[in-house]
Write the C-alpha cells for this entry.
Amino acid sequence: MMSIGLILEGGGTRGAYTAGVLDVLTENNIFIPVTYGISAGACNAMSYLSKQQGRNYKIFTQYASDKRYLSWGNLIRKGSIFGFDFIFGPLTNELLPFDFHEFYKTEMELRIGATDCMTGEAVFFDKSDIDSECKAVIASSSLPLVSPVVNFNGHHLLDGGLAAPIPIDCALHDGINKNIVVLTREKEYVKHGESAMVCRMMNHTYRRYPELLRTLQNRAEIYNNERAICYREQENGDAVVIEPSSPVTISHYCTKPDKMEELYQMGIKDTKAKLSEIRRFIALNS
C-alpha cells in the first residue's frame, strides 16, 4: 500500500506553491498512498487527503490577508502571528468547511511532523492523532518566536520545520524509498544561519530547552542537508522533485493575494510540466 510517499515542505504562506501542486495532482486523480507534511505542508496535506481541490487556493488568496488569519495584532493579543483559533475554527468549520468524513475515510495515510522542544528532534503524528481541534497541525505550524509552544500528547512542540524541514529522512526511515517531493524554494536556494539578534532572542526565549536551542543553531545545516538528500534521491531515480521554477521572494508571512496567486499558478505550471514524469514514476514503483 505505502510504496510511494509524498513529501511536503513547509514555508508559511509560501505554501501557496504547494497548493497549486496538489490541485494538479487531485485534478488528475493522482493520490499518493502516504503524505509527510511539515507546517504549511501539513495544512495543505489535509485538503489533499480530503480531496477538496481548490480549498487551499481559497485559503491563501482569500483569507491569508485577513487579520484573523495572519497579523502582528494576533501576536500581541494571542501570542501567535497565525490566528489558529480562526484557521481551525470558523475557517475550517464554516467559511471553507473541511471534509473530515472524507479525510478519515480515505485509505491515504498522513504523517505530520513537529519539533519536540525537550529533545530537539522531530516527532511525527498520524491521521489518527488528528481530531477536530487539529492540535498536531497547529504544533507543526507553530513558528519559533511568533507562536507559543504547543502541549500535545505529552510533548512540548514547535514548528516541524526546525528538526525536519523536508521530511525525506522520516519517509526513508519508514521504508518509503520512492518519493515525490514538493519544495517551496527554487533549486538554487541555500539557507543561511540566523542573524545575531534573532539568535539572542531565541537563546533567551527557549533557555529552558537546551536541545531545542542546539537544533535551532543547526537549522540551516539541517535544511540544506535535507534538500541535498532529495536531489540525491532524484539523481538515483528514487524521487521526483517539484520545485519553484523561478526564485521565491515572499516570506513566511506574506499577506498579498496577488503574490500568492502568482505562486499558486507557478505550482500549477511546474507540476503540469512534470505530469508525464510523475505518472511514469508512479507506474514504475506501484
Remarks:
- Strands lie at 4-8, 34-38, 109-116, 122-126, 150-152, 155-158, 178-182, 239-242.
- Residues 219-235 form the longest helix (17 residues).
- The two ends are 9 Å apart (CA to CA).
- The mean pLDDT is 96.
